[in-house]
Amino acid sequence: FQQDEPDNRTGYAACLVQLGKTIGVEESLREGLDILRGEKNKDSTLKLKVAYAALALANYLRMQQIAAFAPQEANLYQENAELDEDAYEELLSKQKVTPDEEKLYKEAIGLVREAIKDAPLSDIQNVISELRTYALSLDLPVQKDHANVVLDATIEFIQQVPGHQDNWELVTVWAACLAHQEKVVDGTQKRVEVISKAIEMAEKANQLHVDKVGKDHPFMWELLAGLLMTQISLVDDEDEVMALYERAVSSFKKAHELAPEKVELLEMIKVIEEMKDAEGNNDSDDE
Questions:
Q1: What's the burial of 3, exposed, middle or buried (CB within 10 Å: 0-12/13-18/19+)?
Q2: For labelling, which of 34, 118, 210, 274 has a CA lying 20 to 30 Å from the CA of 187?
Q3: CA 171 vs CA 52, 108, 115, 158, 275: distances in Å
């Protein structure tokens, strides 16, 4: 690329970022980001390229943290018949969002806010995708404040895209973000509100997909089933609980019908039907 277009520093930097992202090379990601930051013409397109590069690097750093955490957690369980809470808390503390990550994602969010009104849709969607990836990787209690910041920003940016309500890809990301946000918000009432909105968005995303390509989306049915199961834990009314079980089973069956290779969905259906039967028996006993 440098030989063919020696003056195209932005293009070269974008190639470095994609290379680093594809094969997992931190130096390539950092070099590409530094070049983009150094460009003088800070138009909306360039700002989104910088944001994308910053998020790609943040995602790389987070994946490295997760990769290191998994075997350490497994060893902790293997070495102790009873989990050492102090050792586990110490391990969790190492999963905090690093200052480098926080600086990167906040830089990206700030740049998107400056550029989103004038930038090309494809660039906006690319950045939203990276934001979603980073947000969904933050699922521990020590990360929830950062997760909420990134999730709120992702949803904010989706809502600023013209025609977003008719874009099944953006509505899918919105639904996925809400599904994750339910895990990191505080308070039962807030969880109920978030999960209800997530279900609404999941159903809408699937309908938009049907309208666009003529068929249901297996991921949306699987996501919807999971959301319905979560909603069960937030509901007290017995009749509503049983109705939600029915919907969850039907949704998982639809997801498996659309993606028969996912045999784990059959196990989920079996487990939920057993839970539903147990709930029904408990109701009978109470009577």
A1: exposed
A2: 274
A3: 20, 21, 21, 8, 31
- 88-132 pLDDT, tens digit per residue, is 888 888 899 999 999 999 999 999 999 999 999 999 999 999 999
The tens digit of pLDDT for each residue in 236-248 reads: 899 999 999 999 9
**Residues 133 and 4 grouped into a single domain:** yes
Question: In this structure, what token pair is assigned to residue 16?
Answer: 């470095």
CA distance 40 to 50: 12
What angle in degrees, to the nearest 10, is found between the helix axes of 26-38 and 9-23? 160
Which range of residues forms the domain containing residue 280?
Answer: 163-287
Whose tokens are 């102090």? That residue is 86
CA distance 252 to 248: 6
Furthest CA-CA distance within the chain: 80
- The type of residue at 63 is M
Residue at token pair 């949803």? 155
Helix (H) or strand (E) holding 95: none
